[in-house]
Amino acid sequence: MTNGNELIESENPMHPARLICELCRNFYTHGWVTGTGGGISIRDRENGLIFLAPSGVQKERIQPDNIFVMRYKDQEYLRTPTDLKPSACTPLFLAAYTIRDAGACIHTHSQSAVLCSLLFDKVFEISNIEQIKAMPNVTRPGHMKYSDRLVIPIIENTEKEEELEGALRQAIKEYPGTTAVIVRRHGIYVWGETVWKAKVYNEAIDYLLELGVKMKQMGIPTVKN
Ligand SMILES: CSCCC(=O)C(=O)COP(=O)(O)O
Ligand SMILES: [Zn+2]
């Protein structure tokens, strides 16, 4: 019987437990995980493990010792730090892993995502912007073109984070080309095949959401026909 500490102890800065801490600090500087909201989970495909941040803590102060580890195949916790609860986003992260075979999933409380959820109805749409080329095609290899239309579904918020799971699962299935779901008046979930792809998609999407808000303010359509 182990306490699972061997799963998070590593000198390697690329170890998922260390990366979660580093990325949460990075996201904090963007205002994406302030006031305990938001977070990130990373899946280690080689070892069949999922790494999760604790719930309700200052995400920019997390240490590897605070990280939960779950076995992917039966979703059993192999490491549970005392006096902490796993992220309330865990069922949503698991949806990205099981439905899309993602390698990491990011949840932010980005103000641009919240504003877009108030300016757009069922989906956020944008086209003919160079930054779109950072986004994947998802249903086929390669990246989107400058003139492609990026469509991100918007689901309604719920009182508890975990209650979003059903709507998020449905949106992922209804929009096979999406790599993100916006939650109205709340934030966004973004995932990718690897942690680095998820990070790039989250940055590109946030840029496009911020731009979308400004374009709407100026009366410029976000989609060019
Ligand atoms: C002010 S945070 C409210 C809960 C929430 O939306 C959230 O993302 C928190 O997730 P956690 O990982 O801290 O359970
Ligand atoms: Zn949240």
From TrEMBL:
Its cofactor is Zn(2+). GO terms for molecular function: methylthioribulose 1-phosphate dehydratase activity; zinc ion binding. The keyword Amino-acid biosynthesis applies. Its EC number is 4.2.1.109. Residues 18-213 form the Class II aldolase/adducin N-terminal domain. Zn(2+) binds at residues 107, 109, 186. One of its GO terms (cellular component) is cytoplasm. The active site is at residue 130. The keyword Lyase applies. It is found in: Cytoplasm. Binds 1 zinc ion per subunit. It is an enzyme of class 4 (lyase). Substrate binds at residue 89. Its main location: cytoplasm. It holds the Pfam family Aldolase_II. Keywords: Amino-acid biosynthesis, Cytoplasm, Lyase, Metal-binding, Methionine biosynthesis, Zinc. One of its GO terms (biological process) is L-methionine salvage from methylthioadenosine. It catalyses: 5-(methylsulfanyl)-D-ribulose 1-phosphate = 5-methylsulfanyl-2,3-dioxopentyl phosphate + H2O. Pathway: Amino-acid biosynthesis; L-methionine biosynthesis via salvage pathway; L-methionine from S-methyl-5-thio-alpha-D-ribose 1-phosphate: step 2/6. HAMAP family: Salvage_MtnB_euk. PANTHER family: METHYLTHIORIBULOSE-1-PHOSPHATE DEHYDRATASE (PTHR10640). Catalyzes the dehydration of methylthioribulose-1-phosphate (MTRu-1-P) into 2,3-diketo-5-methylthiopentyl-1-phosphate (DK-MTP-1-P). Belongs to the aldolase class II family. MtnB subfamily. This is Methylthioribulose-1-phosphate dehydratase. It comes from Dekkera bruxellensis. The lineage of its organism: Eukaryota, Fungi, Dikarya, Ascomycota, Saccharomycotina. The gene is MDE1.
